[in-house]
Amino acid sequence: MNKRLNTIFFILGATAFNVLVAVVSFILLTLVYARFIMTLVPDSGRAWGFTLIFLASLAISFLVYRYVLKYFLNKVDVEKYFDPLFVKRNLKKN
C-alpha cells in the first residue's frame, strides 16, 4: 500500500473510532441517567438531561480520540507511512 492509501484508511478508521466512542459513551451515560438520576428529576426537567448527555458524550469522544491519537503518533513514524493532508505550494514571486 502506498502513503496516500494509508492516509485514507487512517482517516476512515479514526473517524469510525471517534463515532464509536461517542455512541458507546452516549449509551452508557443514558443508562446511568435512566437508572439513577431520572427518578430524582421532575418531569419538566428530564429532557435537559438527554441534551447534557449528548454534549457530554461528544466531549468524552473528543478527549478519548485526542489521547489515543497522541499515543498513536508517538508510536508510529507518521512521515514514513502517511501522506501529508495539506501541501504547501510554491508560489512564484514576481
List keywords for this structure.
94 residues; mainly alpha; 0% strand; 3 helices
Rg (C-alpha, Å): 20 Å
Q: Structural class, from helix and strand content?
A: mainly alpha
Overall pLDDT: 90
Unreliable stretches covering 5 or more consecutive residues: none
Overview of the structural elements:
There is one protein chain. With about 90 residues, the protein is an all-alpha fold. Helices cover about 75% and strands about 0% of the residues. It has helices spanning about 5-35, 45-75, 80. Helix 1 packs antiparallel against helix 2. The longest helix has about 35 residues, at about 5-35. The two termini are about 40 Å apart. The model has no long low-confidence stretch (mean pLDDT about 90).
Short summary:
Helices cover 73% and strands 0% of the residues. The chain is built from 3 helices and no strands.
Outline the secondary-structure elements.
Blueprint: H1 3-37, H2 46-75, H3 78-81
Helix pairs in contact: 1-2
